[in-house]
Here is the input.
Amino acid sequence: MLKRHLLATGLSLFMVLPIQADTLSIAEPTYKTPNSESGILRPTQGMTMQQVEQKYGIAEQKYAPKGIPAITRWQYPQFDVYFENQLVIHSVVQRKSE
Here is the structure.
């Protein structure tokens, strides 16, 4: 009887707990392109969203924030910028299909 009661309680807890997972997918970014005049100039770590817009203009596409902390992606013609809350954490050059 006690085993049944424990099993029922365990199953009830399992059903009540939220199950959630966020996936951030980056399709093979290019890390070898220099962030300079000879490569592709792009935002650097620590810049704010406002600074990125002032320097690079409005993004072609802005994806909604996901997860905790909130990760947001802005897509520009040659690169993507990833923000944690309001700050740049990374920018990657888009891979060109060959």
Q: What stands out?
A: DSSP finds two helices and four strands in the chain.
